[in-house]
Specification:
Bound molecules: 2-oxoglutaric acid
CATH topology: Nitrilase/N-carbamoyl-D-aminoacid amidohydrolase
Shape: globular
Structural class: alpha/beta
Largest sheet: 7 strands, mixed
GO molecular function, one term: hydrolase activity
Organism: Pseudalkalibacillus berkeleyi
CATH superfamily: Carbon-nitrogen hydrolase
Helix content: 25-40%
Protein name: Carbon-nitrogen family hydrolase
Number of helices: 8
Distance between the termini: 32 Å
Low-confidence stretches: none
Family: Belongs to the carbon-nitrogen hydrolase superfamily. NIT1/NIT2 family.
Keywords: Hydrolase
């Protein structure tokens, strides 16, 4: 399964400009037999939190129509990062996953809101799990700050997720946290990690890029720098099974001592 991670800059508070920008990026990323495209967190609006009750997408409809048509055109799965989705009075930070036929296969709303960037003042936390499949491979999605909660990721790994998708807007001053947390989540859960950060800046933050695709042994298969770029790697589930046989952590867990 070939994955393409689109590390992009985001035009603050301007969904139309971001829709236009992403169209050419997706076309380019699909030029060579790509199976899955991954986008960053809040890629339609950026962190324009005060405006989300106006520029957030009602029920995600506009994003769904737009991404669905690209998924159909290129016959590709799209983990469409996350977008601000308005539902009645609330706004959620929601990951939308599309299959090759353009169906919305999963909606996952970020469960851990990040106080340092005032998310809890403007967003409502989700309460559902992040499980989905991509071409029948069990996967799960997490959004940015979620990766600081190993118990949340572990729950999904124990329930069968093998590829962990992480869209983010992770600020540059904590790039080493981002890199180390992602590598650790891959090693400790023996999962692939496919992580997409944004680059550029908004009025409050500079974002660090370093999107990464990591194998279950913790090896970085591909890593971006701090510019707009698309990175690619192949995910091989047979390889994951080999790693899990070599060090069988799932068999060696002491469930008599802990869950
Ligand atoms: O945990 C962090 O340092 C960054 C998290 C973040 O930026 C977010 O969840 O949007």
């Amino acid at each position: 399964m070939k994955v393409a991670v689109i590390q992009m800059d985001i035009v603050y508070g301007n969904p139309q400009a971001n829709f236009e920008h992403i169209t050419s990026k997706i076309r380019e990323a699909c030029s060579d037999q790509t199976d899955v495209i991954v986008l960053p967190e809040l890629w339609t609006t950026g962190y324009d939190l005060e405006m989300l009750d106006q520029i957030g997408d009602p029920n995600g409809e506009k994003t769904i129509e737009f991404i669905s048509s690209l998924a159909i055109s290129y016959h590709v799965n799209i983990v469409a990062g996350s977008v601000a989705v308005r539902k009645e009075k609330d706004v959620f930070n929601t990951m939308l996953v599309f299959d090759r036929e353009g169906n919305v296969h999963k909606e996952y709303s970020k469960v851990h809101l990040f106080r340092l960037m005032n998310e809890e003042k403007y967003l409502k936390a989700g309460n559902d799990d992040g499980h989905f499949t991509i071409d029948d491979i069990p996967a799960a999605g997490f959004i940015c700050y979620d990766i600081r909660f190993p118990e949340w990721i572990r729950k999904h790994a124990l329930e069968g997720a093998k590829v962990l998708f992480v869209p983010a807007e992770w600020p540059k001053p904590r790039t080493e946290h981002w890199r180390n947390l992602l590598i650790t989540r891959a090693i400790e859960n023996q999962c692939y990690v496919v992580a997409c950060n944004r680059v550029g800046s908004d009025p409050d933050n500079v974002f660090g890029g370093h999107s990464m695709i990591i194998n279950p042994w913790g090896e970085i298969l591909s890593e971006a720098d701090e510019d707009e770029t698309t990175i690619y790697a192949n995910i091989q589930i047979e390889e994951l099974n080999e790693f899990r046989k070599r060090i069988p952590i799932y068999e060696d867990r002491r469930t008599d001592l802990y869950e």
